[in-house]
Design goal:
Helix content: 40-55%
Number of helices: 15
Distance between the termini: 20 Å
Number of domains: 2
Shape: globular
CATH topology of the largest domain: TIM Barrel
CATH superfamily of the largest domain: Divalent-metal-dependent TIM barrel enzymes
Oligomer: single chain
Largest sheet: 8 strands, parallel
CATH architecture of the largest domain: Alpha-Beta Barrel
CATH class of the largest domain: Alpha Beta
Order of helices and strands: EHHEHHEHEEHEEHEHHEHEHHHHH
Radius of gyration: 23 Å
Amino acid sequence: MNTFSPKPENKFTFGLWTVGSTGRDPFGSPVREPKTPVELVHLLAEVGAYGVNFHDNDLVPIDATPAEEEAIKRDFRRALQETGLVVPMATTNLFGDPVFKDGAFTSNDPKVRAYALQKTMRAIDLGAEFGAKIYVFWGGREGTETDSSKSAVDAIKRNREALNFLCEYSMDHNYGLKFALEAKPNEPRGDIYNPTTGHMLGFIATLDHPEMVGVNPEVAHEHMAGINFMHGVAQAWEAGKLFHIDLNDQYPGRYDQDLRFGSRDLKAAFYLVKFLEDVGYQGSRHFDAHAYRTEDYEGVKDFARGCMRTYLMLKEKAAQFNADPEIQTILAEVNAEDPTLAAFFGKYSPEKAEAIKAMAFDRQAIASRGLKYERLDQLTVDLLLGMRS
C-alpha cells in the first residue's frame, strides 16, 4: 500500500485556475488547450484530490448569459456528485478584467468600486450555492505604480468599507462564511496594499466584524519578499486567524512563480508541514500552484500528484523528527525550564518586578553555554535526506 497516496482526510484541494492553467505567460502564448470546469473536476478526482475551489469566472465566464450560467452550474454540480469532490473555498476575480486596472475596492473611480461590490456579492452567492465556507479576498490590483495617483489612507478606508459591507451582506444571508484575506507584496501592481500577512492581521483588527475575518497566507507571496513563511503562519495561528492556506513554492526576489509545493525550498516546506501537523490545523491544504509550461495535461496530473505526495512525505518526516531520540534530547535541553525562576514569569506584579530587578545574573556563564543548534540543524538535514531511520 502506498502510504503517500492522498486521502479525503488530508483535505487536499486545488483551484480550477491551477490545474486549468494553459501555460500562458507574459512572454508566451498558451501551450495547453483549455479544459472545462467539468473536465477539471474529473482530472482532480483522478489524482485523488479532496476538493476544488474557484474564482467566480473560472466557473462562469464574466459575460455569460443567465441561461448559460445555469447550464454551467448544472453540469458542474453533476460532476461534483459523480466524483465526490467538494467546494471548501471560493473567491472573486477582481484583477483580470480591464475595468480593474486601477484596483477594485481601492479604485479612485466610484463606479469601479460599486461594480466590485456587485461582482463580489454575486460571487459570494455562487460560492455559498456550492457549499463553500471560506471566502478568500486577494487584492491583486489593490495598489499603485506611482503614489502620486492615490492616497494610501483613502485606499485603506475604501478597502475597510468594502469588507465591512460584504461581511454584513454575508451575515444578512446567513451564509456562515468566514472571510480570508490574502497578502502579496507586488505583481501585478508595482506595490500592493497590505503586502504581508502581518499587515493583514493589523488591518483585520480595524474591521467591524473582525471575528469573521482571518487570513489566507501563501508560500510564494511571503517568499517573494524574503520572509519566513512559517513564522507568518504561526502568527496567524496564534491569533486564531489561520482560516485557509495556499501551498506552492517560490524563489525569493523573483516574479510570482507558483511552483509545485516543496520543489524549491524543501527545508522551509518541511518546517511548514511540521507546524501545521503539530498544531492540528484542520482546514484545507490548498495548492495554489501551476505545472511547468513544458507540460501537457499528463504533466499537469504529475504536478498535482507531486504537490500532495511531497506534503505527505514531509508529514511523515515531521513525525520522525518528533520521535527521534537525539533530536528530542537536544530540544529538551535547550528548552529546559529553571524551576527557581518559574515564579517570576507570567502576569506582572510589583513584587515580581522588584525581585527580578534585584537578581544577579552571571552573563559570562550564561553566554558560554553552547546550544547545539548546528548539530540540531544537521540532524534535520540528515532526516530529510533519508540518513536517519
